[in-house]
Amino acid sequence: MSPLRTRWARALTATVLAALGAGALAAAPAAADKPAPGKPASATYTVSIGGTGSYAYPDDTPAGVYTDKDGAFYFQQSHSLYGAKDSRQWSFYTGADFESATRSPISDAVDPADPNDRNDDTTSRCNNSVTGVRSTAAPQGSGYSQRNFCDLVGVWVDPDTGDWYGLVHNEFTPQPFGDGLHYDAIDYAVSTDQGRTWTIKDHVISSPYSTARGDNTAFPNQTYDYGDGDPRLFVDTASGYFYVYYGSRIVPKAGVGGGNGGLAHVARAPISAKMAPGSWQKWYDGTWSQPGQGGLESNMVPVTPTAPTGYTPPVNDYHPSTPGSVDQQVKAGQLRPSHRCSS
Length: 343
Description:
Blueprint: H1 3-20, H2 22-25, E1 64-67, E2 73-80, E3 88-95, E4 102-103, E5 110-111, E6 114-118, H3 123-127, E7 148-157, E8 164-172, E9 183-191, E10 199-205, E11 223-225, E12 229-236, E13 241-252, E14 261-270, E15 281-284, E16 287-291, H4 326-331
């Protein structure tokens, strides 16, 4: 992902926190009529953010932590850069804790059945994945050297089998309308040998709209929706669900006619389903009512006293049939402004 997309991912995280509302950051005791065991009745809880510390292994995606079946601590991150000679890797780190972890040899593992399928060069893996084979190459002369770029973002270890499961962020079919971007979609992958080799299984979360190159029937006016990506995986064992916060963006065709519009969404799936495609439900209009593959999705917004639902009403959310640039739609109240982090 580019620096622009990294900044967008940070903005998505900030929006998720805002959408939870102040009550989630200063919670009341566990029960309304009595405090949780060992806690005084007046106890409240706050979340604060301190200064930024140093980090030895900066990468394009955020480091996601998990514990292996043998109790070993890991974190994983990745990048998939656009140039023909640029690096594309899924990297793994392990150690006693985050500060002392070092790069694992898993990061250099090669599939013995296919020497082109490597953790330290995922070019072939991305292009031959379920998303990659349906993608198309960018126009001649483009800086996008591949038809699909994919990052592993978020790993869960199955307690039943010890297999590693992960979400895969795809950036595919570059410059679909002569612009500078691409489509996004989220797949899932499985490793049965503790991360050494991976199989990208299927789509789990994808756009409500077309992801075909130049589809002016699906997008008849000045903008298009580039799909669903940049996932952040949360494994909530208390509720029994995976939750995935992800983003989409409204893009001007041919890169002209105003800025991009960034939107934030969430989907969930039962942990027991082990990320199977049909198990995901998108949050739409206040309920978990739409399928992960192709379903509609609501844009998350901060909860306020005057807007308590936490989402944009569908009538004010993006519609491909709405004419005008992103800026014009925002000004007319037909699209929410982009979510941004404050500095």
